[in-house]
Amino acid sequence: xxxxxxxxxxxxxxxxxxxxxxxxxxxxxxxxxxxxxxxxxxxxxxxxxxxxxxxxxxxxxxxxxxxxxxxxxxxxxxxxxxxxxxxxxxxxxxxxxxxxxxxxxxxxxxxxxxxxxxxxxxxxxxxxxxxxxxxxxxxxxxxxxxxxxxxxxxxxxxxxxxxxxxxxxxxxxxxxxxxxxxxxxxxxxxxxxxxxxxxxxxxxxxxxxxxxxxxxxx
Length: 218
Prior knowledge:
Blueprint: E1 17-24, E2 28-33, E3 50-54, E4 61-73, H1 87-93, E5 101-113, E6 139-142, H2 145-151, H3 157-162, H4 169-183, H5 188-201, H6 206-213
Antiparallel strand pairs: 1-2, 1-6, 2-5, 3-4, 3-6, 4-5
């Protein structure tokens, strides 16, 4: 006999609470998106978007940038097949499909805000790897715009992005800069400073620098 899955109350979930850590390492974490309450796929965080999670034991708030997103079957037995239906048709005719898929994303860790107990200032952030990554089952949130703006007052995180393994780092760097530039209401001086920082970091690789800058549209 198949037992029913446990039901959890989602009514008090924070609107920015989008995922949960399911694998973690020193430089990145893998998160699974939480299922929505209606018949739809979990919202995919955009490539180059900012997320955060809190390591509950240390109290550190860890910042990451999404560099890989995938939707796949929950198990390896039931593979999706093309049905030729719209999303609305799927909801009406094949609603079980939404429960058979999961969405996961990887985020590169770019810095952290230390626990308020040890921070020099409440809004102080470090743009390097935290002492340890978030633990399994920690909640992952979309970053608030003001947090991203505060974090990116310094640009050392660009060096971290350029060293991410297994990711299209040039496109990722450009996407992250575009997102911050948008949140900063087209702050051209910030964009110029970001370009100058990249030119220093990539001073020996002009072709790569040009490729990144070509993807940034002021």
